[in-house]
């Protein structure tokens, strides 16, 4: 049975918000309501932070009302203090749900040793390719590794790892991660179609990322690698707030313009006190598949200089090669398929450096974010 947004709104029109008779549907507190093709319903309820204890009851009532609709397979309802448009920072985390572990959402994810973000200031620079191969590099070092594709606006991890299908819903609202090449994997791409995700606003992005971090049965992991959405906006700040990140890796191509964006990325993470584990230069040099000649199409060495200038580690440079593009896009990542190739060696060396950096880092408390 198809669930419509109208049917959901009808149910929410039965949920009282206050004694004055206002309902959730007409209270002006409701974000966009999204329904995906498998009958999952997602929305946020705007609150002022002091209202959180009272509004948690409203959230529970809303969840119950929507769950009762025939055809609804899951309800993701969250309280948020962030208005669409993003002018107000989420001030106080919502109170824990009865079935959630009793801890603020800024605490570590149980069983997960370190969470690291792979980010880029701009799109299309090879961030996801780097995240996938770095995760595989860490796995090749004997670590238990998860990969979370939080790139709401272009989830490409399912494709890069050749994963099809949907994750299983375990008890409650917990999802079982998918598995590929020894990695545990969750992607927003498994859950909603790309067009739906594209229209999400700040609070929806925040709730989706938080749920993928916390409502997935990750099990025991040494490292969870998060493929971030490109850019330096709300989603990145949300990520930083939602979990204690051990550090961030910034991927850039060598062009000046990409480097300006990379610099923004570095300064954003610094602003929220997340250590930069290093910068990666991707598509550094073009290796001709026919004659093997190297040409610096986008220039070369820019990211290394930038890293020096910013005082952050430089993790390595990955050439622009047909074999990386073809193997990535065919769901056969180079580190898994050709572990002894020179390209795999570059990613493994990055993984080694990251492992060393993580070994020296304790788990940090997540910073409080103030959006100016
Ligand atoms: N070193 C490389 N050599 C050749 N092709 C590459 C390399 N790195 C990435 N690519 C290709 O570039 C394209 C974009 O890569 P990828 O999806 O990893 O980028 P992204 O920064 O995550 O993009 P988006 O911002 O869209 O998520 C893909 O087709 C990928 O195969």
TrEMBL record:
Q: Write out the ranges of the annotated region (Disordered).
A: 85-107
- What is any Pfam family matched here? ParA
Q: Would the keyword Iron be found if you checked this record's keyword annotation?
A: yes
The residues forming the signal peptide are: none
| Protein keywords | 4Fe-4S, ATP-binding, Hydrolase, Iron, Iron-sulfur, Metal-binding, Nucleotide-binding, Transit peptide
Does the keyword Disulfide bond feature in the UniProt annotation? no
Residues annotated for ATP binding in this entry: 121-128
Instruction: Please give the InterPro entries that the UniProt record associates with this protein.
Output: FSCA_dom_sf, MIP18-like, Mrp-like_CS, Mrp/NBP35_ATP-bd, NUBPL-like, P-loop_NTPase, YlxH/NBP35
GO terms, molecular function? 4 iron, 4 sulfur cluster binding; ATP binding; ATP hydrolysis activity; ATP-dependent FeS chaperone activity; metal ion binding
Q: Where is the MIP18 family-like domain?
A: 5-75
Q: Which residues cross the membrane?
A: none
Which cofactor does the UniProt annotation name? [4Fe-4S] cluster
CDD domains per the UniProt record, alphabetical:
Mrp_NBP35 (cd02037)
The residues forming a coiled coil are none
Q: Which one GO biological process term can you cite for this protein?
A: mitochondrial respiratory chain complex I assembly
SUPFAM superfamilies in the cross-refs = Fe-S cluster assembly (FSCA) domain-like, P-loop containing nucleoside triphosphate hydrolases
What family name appears in the similarity comment?
A: In the C-terminal section; belongs to the Mrp/NBP35 ATP-binding proteins family. In the N-terminal section; belongs to the MIP18 family.
Role of this protein: Binds and transfers iron-sulfur (Fe-S) clusters to target apoproteins. Can hydrolyze ATP.
Q: How does it assemble?
A: Homodimer.
Protein name in UniProt: Iron-sulfur cluster carrier protein
Q: What is the lineage of its organism?
A: Bacteria, Pseudomonadati, Pseudomonadota, Alphaproteobacteria, Hyphomicrobiales
């Amino acid at each position: 049975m198809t669930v419509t947004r109208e049917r959901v709104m009808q149910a929410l029109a039965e949920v009282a918000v206050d004694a004055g008779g206002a309902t959730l549907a007409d209270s002006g507190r409701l974000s966009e309501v999204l329904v995906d093709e498998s009958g999952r319903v997602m929305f946020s309820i705007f609150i002022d932070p002091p209202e959180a204890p009272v509004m948690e009851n409203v959230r529970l009532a809303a969840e119950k009302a929507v769950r009762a609709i025939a055809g609804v397979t899951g309800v993701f309802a969250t309280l948020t203090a962030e208005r669409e448009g993003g002018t107000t920072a989420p001030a106080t985390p919502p109170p824990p749900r009865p079935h959630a572990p009793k801890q603020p959402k800024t605490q570590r994810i149980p069983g997960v040793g370190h969470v690291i973000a792979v980010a880029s200031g701009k799109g299309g620079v090879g961030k996801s390719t780097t995240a996938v191969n770095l995760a595989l590099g860490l796995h090749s070092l004997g670590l238990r590794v998860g990969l979370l594709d939080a790139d709401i606006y272009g989830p490409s991890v399912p494709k890069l790892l050749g994963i099809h299908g949907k994750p299983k819903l375990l008890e409650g609202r917990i999802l079982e991660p998918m598995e590929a090449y020894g990695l545990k994997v969750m992607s927003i791409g498994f859950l909603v179609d790309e067009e739906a995700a594209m229209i999400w606003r700040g609070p929806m992005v925040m709730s989706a990322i938080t749920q993928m971090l916390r409502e997935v049965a990750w099990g025991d992991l040494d490292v969870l690698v998060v493929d971030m959405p490109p850019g330096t906006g709300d989603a990145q700040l949300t990520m930083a707030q939602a979990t204690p990140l051990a550090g961030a890796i910034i991927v850039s191509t060598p062009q000046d313009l990409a480097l300006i964006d990379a610099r923004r990325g570095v300064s954003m993470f610094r602003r929220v006190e997340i250590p930069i584990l290093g910068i990666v230069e991707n598509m550094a040099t073009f290796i001709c598949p026919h004659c093997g000649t190297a040409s610096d199409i986008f220039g070369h060495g820019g990211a290394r200089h930038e890293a020096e200038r910013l005082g952050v580690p430089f993790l390595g440079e990955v050439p622009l090669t047909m074999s990386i593009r073809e193997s990535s896009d065919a769901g056969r990542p180079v580190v898994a398929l050709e572990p002894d190739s020179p390209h795999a060696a570059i990613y493994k060396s990055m993984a080694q450096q990251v492992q060393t950096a993580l070994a020296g880092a304790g788990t940090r408390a997540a910073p409080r974010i103030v959006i100016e």
